[in-house]
Design brief:
The complex is a heterodimer of chains A (about 110) and B (about 110).
Chain A: E1 5-7, E2 10-13, E3 19-24, E4 31-38, E5 42-50, E6 53-57, E7 64-68, E8 74-78, E9 87-94, E10 102-103, E11 107-111
Parallel strand pairs in A: 2-11
Antiparallel strand pairs in A: 1-3, 3-8, 4-5, 4-9, 5-6, 7-8, 9-10, 9-11
Chain B: E1 5-7, E2 10-14, E3 19-24, E4 31-37, E5 44-49, E6 55-58, E7 61-65, E8 71-76, E9 85-92, E10 101-103, E11 107-112
Parallel strand pairs in B: 2-11
Antiparallel strand pairs in B: 1-3, 3-8, 4-5, 4-9, 6-7, 7-8, 9-10, 9-11
Chain lengths: ~110, ~110
């Protein structure tokens, strides 16, 4: 157990639908990062939050959004889902803006 | 856009063999991290190197950061089936639009008994 909890572990949904992925960071970590991992693209950075504020934005589609709540858990919302959104979505946390990341076990999203 | 190129992309060896995987970039990084990822799990941090020329050893794994802080290598001695997994390098820097880490696409290692 890495200390970073992601739910659900698996998600199957239809095109056009909306889903919410949840992440609880390791205790004490203020930074949360979301990544998308697909076979051909590797780990792609989506977005970072630090203590509730958006800190950096990567290759995140406009159909995707995220937030970090006062208790530091984070949610990634994916809407108008397309087949190409099928991937593993990882959340990671760190104690500061630099240093090693602790990853959760991921959410495997399948869009059918 | 900063890129990290990892080679080889795939590596299949027999138990007991030695191997080296590489991580190269044209950019300078403040730190370089190596992660290992097993199927169905998230990447797990193995080591962080921050000084050019730095060498770190973790049991049978030796990590080196290039003098110019643009490249790194991971050497495994006497590989074991338990070393099987995806090895990812990640370059660290401050600020920018990629968070603070850029990941390579990884080297998929298979060690056969």
């Amino acid at each position: 157990d890495s200390g970073v909890t992601q739910t659900p572990k698996h998600l199957i949904t239809a095109t056009g639908q909306r889903v919410t992925l949840r992440c609880s960071p390791r205790s004490g970590d203020l930074s949360v990062y979301w990544y998308q991992q697909s076979l051909d693209q590797g780990l792609q950075f989506l977005i970072q939050y630090y203590n509730g504020e958006e800190r950096a934005k990567g290759n995140i589609l406009e159909r995707f959004s995220a937030q970090q709540f006062p208790d530091l858990h984070s949610e990634l919302n994916l809407s108008s889902l397309e087949l190409g959104d099928s991937a593993l979505y990882f959340c990671a946390s760190s104690a500061r803006d630099r240093g090693g990341y602790t990853f959760g076990s991921g959410t495997r999203l399948t869009v059918v | 856009t900063q890129l990290l190129e990892q080679s080889p992309q795939f590596l299949s060896i027999q138990e007991g063999e030695n191997l080296t995987v590489y991580c190269n970039s044209s950019s300078v990084f403040s730190s370089l991290q190596w992660y290992r990822q097993e199927p169905g799990e998230g990447p797990v941090l193995l080591v962080t190197v921050v000084t050019g020329g730095e060498v770190k050893k973790l049991k049978r794994l030796t990590f080196q950061f290039g003098d110019a802080r643009k490249d790194s290598s991971l050497h495994i001695t006497a590989a074991q089936p338990g070393d099987t997994g995806l090895y990812l390098c990640a370059g660290g820097y401050y600020g920018g639009s990629q968070g603070n880490l850029i990941f390579g696409k990884g080297t998929k290692l298979s060690v056969k008994p």
